[in-house]
Fold:
Amino acid sequence: MTNPEFQGTRRGILTGGTWCVDHNRVIEFWPAEDAVAEILSDEMQGGGSACNLAIDIRKLDSDLPVETIGLVGDDSAGRFLLEQAELHGIRNSQLTVAKDTTTQFAEAYTSKLSGRRTHIYRAGASALLAPDDFDLAATTAKILHLGLPGVHKTMDQPYRDDPNGWVTVLRRARALGIVTNLELASVAPGRLVPLVLPCLPHLNLLIVNDTEIGVLADRITVIDGKTDVEACIEAAQNILERGEMETVVVHFPVGAVAVTKDGRVAVHPSVNVPPEEIIGANGAGDAFAAGFLYGYHENWSLERCLVLAHAAAAASLRSVSTTGSMESWETCLAYATRWGSRDQPLDRQAVSYARLYSPSTFSLRG
Structure:
């Protein structure tokens, strides 16, 4: 999947936006108000869109440069996140310490009974992140992965002549020839849509889940908990018409679709991960995006990008934390080959899934 903006000297991925500390807890079940549930395990890890994708990409390929931009507080949690960036080889000169405030944190609960996740967060320093914190002229990255609208108070507000700070950052990135992608948060539709729709003309890519694409396109894409694949394709096509994006990708539990501006549609089922391997879905969406963006960066075909995205998401399910079980792209593909694809058929099947899952069809740069 060759993109003319990839020509030149740019290489690597820049993440921008949310860096927070996740207190990951597995509980018996999610209780009703005034009820009680036991915490079965807990751990502290880095979290947030910018943190998760940066670490995932470095684990997929430790040779690929990864940079990041964000704000942390002047506290132990902020120092922990800076240490995590250093540990994983993330270039963090623009991961700035904001004085007199705390680092964003989230209480991330995973129900053992249902596998569902619930996040409760405090914004802290992230509320102060502003467009002027992004020195995009200093980056040599090819791709900017930006998030999360609805979580960053200052970025959500109008900035100069732009409807919000997200538009400002994306517009500046595009002007420099940086490929742009936006990650969304599970905030109320009435809050999310006004923030995201003005961003569409400034995006090259949009990677979202089945619910998010439905909200943006004002379509019903999930019925009684089941994804309507054709509705997702139609919603993606609708969103493509509203901007200059090359590709919209929609992922959901049983598969994913990718729709391009020139009319191509690729559909793939997800990996059939053995139940005993699944610990939690926290970070699976970030892992999927990391796999797709890595393949996109390396100019892989659209179908190969989807295959790696599913493989990365599958690998991530083996940990309660967002990035703890991510491994190299070759290892992720090996897991996917061993486990195979889901048996549930999707409405469209663009290519042979089994053939694409053969690790011998992949090379590091092709």
Observations:
- The mean pLDDT is 90.
- The radius of gyration is 19 Å.
- The chain is about 30% helix and 25% strand.
